From TrEMBL:
It comes from Phrynocephalus forsythii. This is WD repeat protein mio zinc-ribbon like domain-containing protein. The lineage of its organism: Eukaryota, Metazoa, Chordata, Craniata, Vertebrata. One of its GO terms (cellular component) is cytoplasm. The keyword Metal-binding does not apply. Residues 1-65 form the MIOS-like alpha-solenoid domain.
Length: 317
């Protein structure tokens, strides 16, 4: 109703009333509309600096109604305001550049939200921005925070996401499978994939799980250890597990493409050092807690934290 009273007359009663009452409006867009209609020609501060109006809308308005010189001054001033306030809407103006890092720094100082800062910087920043000490600090603080909250899987997912977007952040391998005879690393043909559990360590065999694997040390050519269940040298693609549960007898482990590579992993007990293919070990310990090697009385499954999750009726004494 109020807008319907608008006229072109500069000294009308409508202009005078709207100028004095518009600040009492709760809707920022209505306030900006009345500011625009009651403003003098070329003076749009009531619209441009209405903080509750979205930055993208203010920039669009400025692009339409300001001159080039006025637009440059407005964009520069607004960008500085966004950076100082740590307003994430300001990324529209700064982009994920050095100015964007400055803006994000103000945001983190104000909110402590290192998660948003980490993901924003990883998702769209060029490599030179990712090398900024502040960005690295946010990422490491976020990783430490996930560890402190015991969100280890989330931390691992974040690290994987990070390595895809920033290949330089991919950590070098720190653990290698070594030959029992010459002591040299066999990572030449096997990629190390450490498992966090205390009872068992697991290492994966690289390459396609459906192809033949190297079953001997590339250094001395001596054979790799044998699986305690199938008695085949490690590195050989697994099939169904001998001695496994009845449900496992109907399943050929090598046919499940999603699990095939995991089934080929090196797995062994930290206590008795016996082990084999991960797929075979999983099948065995679904029904047993004791080591599959004859004359070994080690309760391997009870050493692993996941062993406590198996129902008692499923475990043989």
């Amino acid at each position: 109703m109020a807008l319907s009273g608008y006229t072109d007359e500069k000294n009308s009663l409508w202009r005078e009333m709207c100028s004095s009452l518009r600040l009492q409006l709760n809707n920022p867009y209505l306030c900006a509309m009345f500011a625009f209609l009651t403003s003098e020609s070329g003076s749009y501060d009531g619209v441009l600096y209405e903080s509750n109006v979205a930055v993208r809308d203010r920039v669009a308005f400025a692009c339409k109604f300001l001159t080039d010189a006025q637009l440059n001054r407005f964009i520069e001033k607004l960008t500085n305001e966004m950076k100082e306030a740590g307003n994430l809407e300001g990324i529209l103006l700064t982009g994920l550049t050095k100015d964007g890092v400055d803006l994000m720094e103000s945001y983190v100082d104000r909110t402590g939200d290192v998660q948003t800062a980490s993901y924003c910087m990883l998702q769209g920043s060029p490599s030179d921005v990712l090398k900024d000490e502040r960005v690295q600090c946010w990422i490491e603080n976020y990783r430490n925070l996930l560890d402190a909250w015991r969100f280890w899987h989330k931390r691992a997912e974040f690290d994987i996401h990070r390595s895809k977007l920033d290949p330089s952040s991919k950590p070098l391998a720190q653990v290698f499978v070594s030959c029992n005879f010459c002591g040299k690393s066999i990572s030449y043909s096997c990629s190390t994939i450490p498992h966090q559990g205390r009872g068992f360590s697991q290492y994966g065999v690289s390459g396609s799980p459906t192809k033949s694997k190297v079953t001997s040390c590339p250094g001395c050519r001596k054979p790799l250890p044998r699986c305690a269940l199938c008695l085949i040298n490690m590195g050989t693609p697994v099939s169904s597990c001998p001695g496994g549960s009845k449900s496992d007898e109907k399943v050929d482990l090598s046919k499940d493409k999603k699990l095939a590579q995991f089934n080929n992993w090196f797995t062994w007990c930290h206590n008795c050092r016996h082990g084999g293919h991960a797929g075979h070990m999983l099948s065995w310990f679904r029904d047993h807690t004791e080591c599959p090697v004859s004359a070994c009385s080690c309760k391997c499954m009870q050493l692993d934290p996941t062993g406590n999750l198996i129902p008692a009726e499923m475990v043989q004494p």
